[in-house]
Specification:
By secondary structure, the protein is α+β, with helices and mostly antiparallel strands. The protein has helices at 38-47, 62-70, and strands at 24-29, 55-59, 75-80. Strands 2-1-3 form a three-stranded antiparallel sheet, with no helix packed on it. The longest helix is centred in the middle third of the chain and has 10 residues, at 38-47. The termini are far apart. The model has no long low-confidence stretch (mean pLDDT 87).
Length: 82
Amino acid sequence: MPDAAKPARQRRPKRQPREDGAARLRVKQVRSGIGHAETYRRTLRALGLRHHQHEIVVGDTPTARGMLNKVRHLVRVTREEA
């Protein structure tokens, strides 16, 4: 029975577009990535932080929270008011 059909894998629904009132986080890079592990520098780039003192706004999502947690010693995070 090598060609037995497997049950279809359940997929998660696609994430809905952000609502206007969704939470946002203001992130400022307060320490340089120089001298830190390559993974930290790549995480900073993935967040959109290009250089020291650069400031961005990101959505408050589990993905962004995980990346911010990884580089928490290099950034300052504040909640942006709507």
